[in-house]
């Protein structure tokens, strides 16, 4: 059965549409490593430290220190290939080459190798393979997930590799927006997201990717949305030419 | 002793004032049931699953699939009667009949049988009795509650049966607003609420109703307010013609 | 190494620039005391109850019941002196004398004895010594703190002694803003703060001060900033005429 939603506000994409050259942007230098969980109190930090090496800031311009971030991307492993996943709207410019940096300040060229505007998803391949395992995906979201804690790491307003948290607020099925956009499943969260967060991973308490942080409801207080992980998997199959 | 507050911003009610006919709104279909708590990590989901069958979206128009939600209501049991509690401002139109749906998509007519504008509280009676127990009320709030976790389930911007959370930020006693409004006790929370949340239950960690989510401070970041549960109890007594 | 950030939005100070005489403001009367932690569920309330006696609302005008709060301050003990710490921008008027009240409604005169505009920090001395221990400082913040829970108590929009919470979102090193402002370390949190929160303590889960809540990113969703506790310590040494 299809469900229709009236959208009172507007969903706004979270990339920075215009690149403004004002000031210099360099990443925070910090070594990151996998941590053994020491106590309950450090668990959210563990999620951060384990995930952040696989997360990137995506720029339209090679002069990453002079331009604003376009959005966020994250590495996953698909059939022994390291793919960078992001929103299609983060890399929707005419460019085919983007510039990615990680929290250690290492810079990579990334080429768009697949994009699906309907699902707002794109894959990039890096010019050099970084020594990172990539994030694990957990596509098994279900209605019992409402209320569970979720996290994202992204680059809101050029504050690179910032963490935000919230809960899953709703799992909206078969959403139809007034502009015709359709989503089979749209994960709604209470995470406060901002321009630059687009394309970042929505992480569960095990640090697994359950979605891609994509948009917020304009003028709302804390209503943000993520493309579910099963849409990543569907598009990986499509990219690999498999039936799905 | 009376206390007076200067209200710098404006408290705005959280119902959608104007019904806009644009698109179709249907509830998410999902079976809900009482769950046994399995582990600490599922507890917030337990609060959701246990409460949501007793929560309703309230519409001014029978064509609930074509109109926007006016607010939220929730069922409680008062002297073996099932009452729907909501804010007075959610049902302040000239209508006496409203249209309520639950998360299963079941539709009910609701008649306003009591309303108190000063306390911003109203009771509705459903045309048919749904097979739900109703939520428990815990009116025993005190200053030691500041900091404790709270939750609401409501219908922000037509995203039906969405959960949001926060902490009790303050318990404001004897609040006088510039427009003359007076509240003996106003529960202040950090929950991000939106139009459509009005009339929803403020739940504690046991899933008990401790208030009615009613308003937010305009232009504030995350300052929302709830009518305390003891005001529900006071009005139930008033409704029943008892002294109080 | 220096890092530069492009600031897309504007950082806005959280004090109320203009004192508006509209209505009366009196503190909530409530006795507060140190509590023994009873269970995990009351821990956030414990942080509140233990900290709030050392926290003050700061007014420009002696008629605190007729004016709006300028910001928040908190007591610390430095070399057996009780100092009130706040942001410089909270007490940047020409006044040297400010009026402080605590949650019990006790009123004090406070004199600015030290201020550092670059670090946005000021110290006040009270005319009478209140019988409070003052808050403990923990300046030992590091990158493993990202994700940990933080709290503040302040006076947003004249709702006195309100608590808000969030996580440490980022630890931004060597931040240079477009207006030339420089911060060696800027603690970024997800706490929703509002005008009146400026100068309030950023507390960790042990109720220790790890920073001073100072600003939010204008137009952002939930991006707020705090001066780190080591800047308090640096300025205490400077105030005491020691080398640092």
Q: Which structural class matches the secondary elements of chain A?
A: mainly beta
Number of helices of chain A: 2
Named at the architecture level, the CATH assignment of the largest domain in chain A is: Beta Barrel
Which percent range fits the helix content of chain A?
under 10%
* Low-pLDDT sequence parts of chain A: 1-9, 16-42
- The count of DSSP E runs of length 2 or more, i.e. the number of strands of chain A, is 13
Q: What characterizes the major β-sheet of chain A?
A: 6 strands, antiparallel, barrel
Q: Calculate Rg of chain A over CA atoms.
A: 17 Å
Give the CATH superfamily of the largest domain in chain A: Trypsin-like serine proteases
Number of structurally distinct domains of chain A: 2
% residues in beta strands of chain A: 35-45%
- Shape summary of chain A: globular
Oligomeric nature of the chains: homotrimer
Largest interface: A-C, 40 and 34 residues
CATH class of the largest domain in chain A reads Mainly Beta
What does this structure look like?
3 copies of one chain form a homotrimer. Chain A is mostly beta strands. Chain A has 2 domains: 40-126, Thrombin, subunit H, CATH 2.40.10; 137-238, Thrombin, subunit H, CATH 2.40.10. The first copy, chain A, is built from 2 helices and 13 strands; from the N terminus they run βαββββββββββββα. In chain A, the strands form 2 sheets. Chain A has a 6-stranded antiparallel beta barrel. A 6-stranded antiparallel beta barrel of chain A has the order 2-3-4-7-6-5. In chain A, β8 and β9 form a beta hairpin. Chain A starts with 10 loop residues before the first strand and ends in a 5-residue tail after the last helix. Mean pLDDT of chain A is 83; it is low at 1-9 and 16-42. Chains A and C meet through α1 and β9 of A and β9 of C.
């Amino acid at each position: 059965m299809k469900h229709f939603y009236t959208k009172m506000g507007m969903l706004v994409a979270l990339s920075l549409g215009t690149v403004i050259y004002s000031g210099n942007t360099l990443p925070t230098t910090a070594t990151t490593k996998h941590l053994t969980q020491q106590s309950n109190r450090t668990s959210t930090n563990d999620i951060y430290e384990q995930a952040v090496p696989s997360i990137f800031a995506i720029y339209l311009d090679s002069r990453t220190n002079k331009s604003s971030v376009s959005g966020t991307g994250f590495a996953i492993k698909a059939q022994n290939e390291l793919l960078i996943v992001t929103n299609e709207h983060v890399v929707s410019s005419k460019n085919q080459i983007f510039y990615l940096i990680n929290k250690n300040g290492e810079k990579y060229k990334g080429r768009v190798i697949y994009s699906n505007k309907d699902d707002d998803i794109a894959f990039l391949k890096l010019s050099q393979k970084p020594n990172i395992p990539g994030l694990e995906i957990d596509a098994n979201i279900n209605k019992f997930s409402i209320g569970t804690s979720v996290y994202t790491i992204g680059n809101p307003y050029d504050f690179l590799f910032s963490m935000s948290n919230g809960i899953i607020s709703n799992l909206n099925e078969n959403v139809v927006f007034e502009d015709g956009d359709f989503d089979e499943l749209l994960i709604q969260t209470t995470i406060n997201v901002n321009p630059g967060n687009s394309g970042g991973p929505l992480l569960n308490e095990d640090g697994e990717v359950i979605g891609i942080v994509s948009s917020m409801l304009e003028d709302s207080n804390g209503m943000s949305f993520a493309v579910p992980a099963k849409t990543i998997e569907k598009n990986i199959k499509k990219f690999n030419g498999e039936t799905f």
